[in-house]
Amino acid sequence: MTDHQKLLMHFEQERIKDKRFMKQILKNCSEATVAFFDEPYPYIVPVNCGFEWKDTLTFYLHTAPDGHKNQLLQENNKVALNIYQFLDRVGYKKAQYLLRTMEDVEIPRMA
User: Fold this and answer.
1) Rounded Cα distance, 99 and 94, in Å
2) Cα 94 to Cα 44: distance, rounded to the nearest angstrom
3) Residues 59-95: pLDDT tens digits?
4) Domains in the chain, start-ordered, CATH in brackets?
5) Entry pTM
């Protein structure tokens, strides 16, 4: 089994490591794509979501109480979650600079 904690990005220097910056990205995103285990193929669906980050990061997914997503989660709670916010290299570097110079950064939401 792959140890995902040891995987390196192709451009490792671009990895976002600052938790304050990660939280700002998450605050600006209300949608995610989730991949569930389903046979014979993964079941991938966009969802509305929220998060809470105290000691650990917890995501909350909007689902129906008795829907297919909940059924799949009960069978196997391992999922892949994709949160996306486009940050070009210039915007990313600017956001990093702002993060170092300000206490609370607002990253503009892309339309």
Assistant:
1) 9
2) 33
3) 888 888 888 998 998 899 888 888 877 666 655 655 5
4) 21-101 (2.30.110.10)
5) 0.65
